[in-house]
Amino acid sequence: MSSFNDQVYLILAKAEAEGSLGYSSTANKILDIARVQYQASDENGKKAVIDKIEALKSEPGVKFPQNYVAALQS
């Protein structure tokens, strides 16, 4: 899970440096790596991925779609 968190951090750091933090492309990149992590995880890992995205949703800057859980499962 730390690898996932590291990847999310790198995506956010790059987006902030480029001024694209609020763009949907940033959320899409995070969802792409979250999908891989989610599908390869047990129930605890899946909950951790969802918790991470929920934490990011509460912060200003990154907008996730309402149906992001369905996107993780597809």
Please characterize this protein's 3D structure.
The protein is an all-alpha fold and 74 residues long. The chain contains four helices and no strands. The protein has one domain (2-73). It has helices at 2-18, 24-39, 43-57, 68-73. The protein is globular, with a radius of gyration of 12 Å. It starts with a helix and ends with a helix.
Which features does this protein show?
mainly alpha; single chain; about 70 residues
Break the fold down into its secondary structure elements and pairings.
Blueprint: H1 2-18, H2 24-39, H3 43-57, H4 68-73
Helix pairs in contact: 1-2, 2-3
Count of discrete domains: 1
Strand content: under 5%
What is the molecular shape?
globular
Please provide the count of β strands: 0
Q: What is the first-to-last residue Cα distance?
A: 20 Å
Decide which structural class fits the backbone.
mainly alpha
Number of helices: 4
Helical percentage: over 70%
The rounded Rg comes to 12 Å
Mean pLDDT: 92
For the sheet with most strands, the description reads:
none
**From N to C, what is the helix and strand string?**
HHHH
- Parts with pLDDT < 50 across at least 5 consecutive residues: none
Short structural description:
This protein has four helices and no strands. The longest helix has 17 residues.
